[in-house]
């Protein structure tokens, strides 16, 4: 290759690598064999399979918990933790027409995609539920759930769930 063509090629290759590294919004990492099914289970039973955004947000919370020292360090450990997700999440049957969307969303989160508004949220509840706690800082409502961070009360700037937003995540 001529020097100028080689430099151009090197620059384009570097841009392509940076672009690929930025896809998904989060760091990719190796996952255990059962992580895909566990992620699917969390998304299937918690997002009501209502929207891709809702599933990606649930998956983002799972991954925020995996990265935290306060929760188990694996997807299955987080999803299977007692009283944290839907009753029977690890043993109930999954199926139906939503499964291809659930699988795609679970794979995408495991490959690094995160909901762009989820931030550090590690908690959520049904959007219709109204809690009376003063330490819930809401960041997002999507897919039938309200997502929040637990903060000291004086640092809560959004004490009520925002309006629902859909259509913010990648593939639809």
From TrEMBL:
**Which InterPro entries is this protein grouped with?**
Cell_wall_hydrolase_SleB (IPR011105), SleB_dom1 (IPR042047)
Q: Decide whether keyword Membrane is in the record.
A: no
- Give the signal peptide as a residue range, or say none if absent: 1-21
Annotated Cell wall hydrolase SleB domain residues? 51-148
Q: What are the protein's UniProt keywords?
A: Hydrolase, Signal
- Which GO terms label this protein's molecular function in UniProt? hydrolase activity
- On whether Membrane is a keyword of this UniProt record, the answer is no
Q: What is this protein called?
A: Cell Wall Hydrolase
């Amino acid at each position: 290759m001529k020097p100028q063509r080689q430099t151009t090629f090197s620059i384009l290759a570097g841009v392509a690598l940076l672009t690929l590294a930025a896809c998904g919004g989060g760091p990719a990492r190796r996952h255990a064999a059962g992580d895909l099914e566990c992620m699917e289970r969390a998304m299937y039973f918690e997002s009501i399979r209502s929207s891709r955004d809702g599933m990606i947000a649930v998956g983002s919370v799972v991954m925020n918990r995996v990265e935290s020292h306060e929760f188990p360090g694996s997807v299955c450990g987080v999803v299977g933790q007692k009283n944290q997700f839907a009753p029977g999440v690890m043993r109930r049957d999954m199926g139906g027409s939503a499964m291809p969307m659930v699988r795609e969303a679970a794979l995408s989160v495991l490959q690094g995609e995160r909901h762009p508004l989820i931030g550090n949220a590690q908690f959520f509840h049904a959007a219709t539920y109204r809690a009376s706690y003063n330490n819930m800082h809401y960041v997002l409502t999507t897919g039938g759930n309200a997502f929040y961070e637990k903060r000291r009360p004086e640092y809560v700037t959004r004490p009520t769930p925002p309006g629902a937003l859909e259509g913010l995540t990648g593939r639809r």
